[in-house]
Amino acid sequence: MMRKDTSIYQQMRDDIIHGILQPGEKITEVKMAEKYNVSRTPIREAMKQLELEYLIKDGYIFVPNAEEFRKIFELRILLETHALKKAAIVFVQEDIDELRSYTNIDVDADENLVIETNDQFHQKLMSATHNEFIMETYEKMKGFIFLFSKTVINKRRHGLIEEHREIVTALEKRDIDQAVHLLKTHLEKDLTFTLHYLDL
């Protein structure tokens, strides 16, 4: 049943992210309308949006294969390294300090807290673009990125937070080439780690 004050899109999205709707599960308008006790119209609209966010594909909860993971990460790397180059130009010390504050956490801390802090770190980098079209594209990937981040953080990838700190240090020095190299390497390690644990 649908929770009060929550859109059907948001509830379906939350249920996918938190595993209530299982990876690979078949999704139909009729089935979801019964589950959430709503008409098929809002279900149809929610499914369209979730398809744009790479959470549903061909009527199933999307389970990407290795090649699809790599393609989505290729896009993520392009977006985040572009944002980092902009950050090196537009970020003032206050922005750098905020970014560093998201590295003051241990990878062995509470999983949800680490996931949230990790998201804040990357979201802060993306804010440097000041480009609503880039941000819209990135936002469409957020659900997928969150699901992927859960694997990286749940399995406690070694060096995750330390790499964030190194990126901040290079950014503060305005060493753009080094910062971009560190971020690209960081995301590639995340991808390799995830593919290993998902056995893809």
What order do the helices and strands come in, and which of them pair?
Layout: H1 8-17, H2 29-36, H3 40-52, E1 56-57, E2 60-61, H4 66-90, H5 93-101, H6 111-127, H7 132-154, H8 160-172, H9 176-197
Antiparallel strand pairs: 1-2
Helix pairs in contact: 1-3, 2-3, 4-6, 4-9, 5-6, 5-8, 6-7, 7-9, 8-9
- Average per-residue pLDDT, rounded, comes to 90
Percent range for β-strand residues: under 5%
| Total of DSSP H or I helical runs spanning 4+ residues | 9
Strand order within the widest beta sheet: 1-2
Count of discrete domains: 2
What does this structure look like?
There is one protein chain. The chain has 200 residues and is mostly helical. The protein has 2 domains: 54 residues, Orthogonal Bundle (Arc Repressor Mutant, subunit A), CATH 1.10.10; 133 residues, Four Helix Bundle (Hemerythrin (Met), subunit A) (Up-down Bundle). 70% of the residues lie in helices and 2% in strands. The chain has 9 helices and 2 strands; from the N terminus they run αααββαααααα. Strand 1 and strand 2 form a beta hairpin. Helix 1 packs across helix 3, helix 5 runs antiparallel to helix 6 and helix 8 runs antiparallel to helix 9. The two termini are 34 Å apart. The model has no long low-confidence stretch (mean pLDDT 90).
